[in-house]
Amino acid sequence: MDRLEEFENVIGYRFKNRSLLFEALSHSSFANESRHRYRSNERLEFLGDSVLSIVVSDYLFENFTDIPEGELTKTRATLVCEKALYHFGSEINLGGYIMLGKGEELAGGRERPSIIADAFEAVIAAIYLDGGMEAARKHIMRFMPSDVLGAVAEAYDDYKTILQEIIQKNPEERVEYRLVGESGPDHSKSFTVRVMLNSNIIGEGTAHSKKSAEQLAAKEALRLMGWTKK
Question: Within this chain, do residues 119 and 192 fall inside the same structural domain, yes or no?
Answer without folding.
Answer: no
